[in-house]
Every structure is written in structure tokens, then in C-alpha cells.
Specification:
Elements: H1 3-37, H2 39-47, H3 59-90, H4 96-136, H5 146-163, H6 166-175, H7 181-186, H8 188-202, H9 207-244
Helix pairs in contact: 1-3, 3-4, 4-5, 6-9, 8-9
Amino acid sequence: MTDTDQSMNLLDHLDEFRKRIMIVLGAFIVFFIASFVYVKDIYDWFVKDLDMQLTVLGPMDIIYVYFMLAGVIAIALTIPVIILQIWLFVKPALTKREQRLTLAYIPASLILFLTGLSFGYFVVMPLVLNFLFGLGGEMFTMMFTTDKYFSFVLRMTIPFSILFEMPLVVMFLTSLGIVTPKAMQKNRKYAFFFIVVISVLISPPDFISDVLVIIPLIFLYEVSIVLSAIVYRKKRKREQQQELE
């Protein structure tokens, strides 16, 4: 391939990349506008279970909260578009088999992402809130500002949406040969220690809350080992067939 051909190929890739970026930005803008239009309904849904009314410290805080809510919802809705555009960008470099395999990751990653968000919002966050209310209810007048509350919601949900992607990440790293099920089994005690530390840090300091957070994360790690073993066996079998050919 000549230098001219390489330059044209690079320009084609850059043009394709720009196209994917524009699609993602367009989707984000559409979702942001739609979220902003319904931001009051979104706000009401998030605070419907609170026993208090949130406060703001200044007029500009209202705009900040509106933009923050609309932005977070728009990002969440744009994630499927991002994943799809990444897949379409790398698709030409993949074999037919790799295309089918990676395409299966898209719905799985979305399901795990939403499961993590739901676990953080419906399980972990109520535990933490109830603990904090019980801790300071008799000593302090409880009054939350809107921006502080929604920052708290994000801290209680986003980490779990990322942690719940662990099985897919492990499968991908296994297919690249970076991770093996044997290594995961060997380092299980270190992984469990890390999981316990993270769970204790993000959950209230009582045994039941810690257990409710630790068990799902340990279960995810064990599922990751099983999935890694499946991917590893298929990878080894494919490599052996290629050697015979």
C-alpha cells in the first residue's frame, strides 16, 4: 500500500469517526431537550419517596438542578447509542463471527448497566438514607439542598452501574488473553477483600446493610469466573483448530 493509499484510508477512518461522534452528539441533544421539557416530572419522580421538601440556596441553583437532571438522563439514554456507534465503527475490522459475538454484548451491557443502577437506587440508597436519618434525626434539623441530594443519588447509583459490568469486562479481557479463569480463582481472596472494603465504604456501618451489598458483588465475581472459563475454553479450542489447519 502506498503512502497516498494509507493517507486516504486514514482520512476515511477519521471521517467515519467524525460521523459516529456527530450521531452521538445529535442523540444527546435530542434526549437533553426532551428531558428538559419533562424535567419537572423527572424531578417529582426522584423525590416522591422523600418525607421532606428539598431546598435551594439561590435562584441559579434551580437552573443548575434542571440542567443536571436533564443532562444525567440524556447521558443515560445516549449510552445505547454510544455502544452501537462504537460497534458500527469497529465492525469493518471484525470477522463475521466476531461481529455476531460483539453484537451480543450490546444488549447484555445495557441490561447490566440498568441492573446496577436499579440496585443502587432501590436497595443501597434507601439503606444509606435510613441510616443517616436515624443517625442525625434527633440531633439535627434535616434539610437537604437539591443539588446535594442529587449528587448523593449519583454517588449511590453510578458506581454500581459500573461494577455490574464486571462479567462482560472479564469476558472481553479473557477473549484477549489478558485474564484467565485460573488467575481469577487464584486471586479470589484478594478480590473478595477488595469487594468487602468497597461495600463497607459505600454502605451504612451495620452488618445487614454490608451483607446486602457484599453478596451481589461476590455473586457477580463468581459469575465472571464461570463466564471467563466458558470464553477461555472456546478460545483454546479455536486456537487448537487453527493449529491443526
